[in-house]
């Protein structure tokens, strides 16, 4: 079990993504290094008000604690109260253009004594749907995982659809992607390879989609719908997301945990899109748990 190798990979991943996205936006990410009083720390890279990325955060953390919080041990009661450490890179990009989708990725490693596991995945949240974008995103994730085990993509895709689902709204957050947690299959080295395959797939999966949509003309109507749908993003993160709950319950750094929140959000009471509109098509054609590849 080489935790230092995991840390080196994650720091390199953060650096490569920040460099690429800074070039695409033209703005510089601010760097915020921080320490956690109980142990460990991290580096949060944040860009706000960019030409392409209205808000973008790429965070690395390596934190330690003396006793596991309830959210981490609910599925493994035998490790409750153990000392622990967690390493990960988590990112969320909220583009300015409503035709460019929001994207989230997280890759992580958790260790508690002799117990360890990997987790990760990424998902796409469009406001205006394009089938070619959805197919490209899912095909890239499938192709990244297939060399390690062709059974992984269908398994992780199903888990993503189940996880990123707003139960109180009875609707998916977006068009899914992959999601895995408590992953130990094949031993440490194989599980680490699967996590790396996920992290390395991010730029090939998202970059071409952002490039296709970033210059699409839009107006106030599209921005208003984007803000409305961003409200769903906030609802999921604050109500259902286990990573957010773990971070807050474990005494994590609130600013870094909540960097995923979009900058502008709105809610409308009992609003429904006009039938036949592009906004209605998001619900009828994209937020339906489809098999894209």
From TrEMBL:
Keyword Plastid annotated: no
A GO biological process held by the record: protoporphyrinogen IX biosynthetic process
Site (Important for dimerization): 168
Biological role: Involved in the heme biosynthesis. Catalyzes the aerobic oxidative decarboxylation of propionate groups of rings A and B of coproporphyrinogen-III to yield the vinyl groups in protoporphyrinogen-IX.
Highest rank taxon of the organism: Bacteria
Organism: Usitatibacter rugosus
Positions annotated to bind a divalent metal cation: 94, 104, 138, 168
Cofactor (UniProt): a divalent metal cation
Catalytic machinery residues: 104
Subcellular location as annotated: Cytoplasm
Subunit structure: Homodimer.
Gene Ontology molecular-function annotations: coproporphyrinogen oxidase activity; metal ion binding; protein homodimerization activity
E.C. number(s) listed in UniProt: 1.3.3.3
Protein name: Oxygen-dependent coproporphyrinogen-III oxidase
Alphabetical list of HAMAP family matching this protein: Coprogen_oxidas (MF_00333)
Metabolic or biological pathway: Porphyrin-containing compound metabolism; protoporphyrin-IX biosynthesis; protoporphyrinogen-IX from coproporphyrinogen-III (O2 route): step 1/1
Major localisation: cytoplasm
Residue numbers binding substrate: 90, 106-108, 251-253
Catalysed transformations (reactions): coproporphyrinogen III + O2 + 2 H(+) = protoporphyrinogen IX + 2 CO2 + 2 H2O
Pfam families hit by this protein: Coprogen_oxidas
Chain segments carrying region Important for dimerization: 233-268
Family per similarity comment: Belongs to the aerobic coproporphyrinogen-III oxidase family.
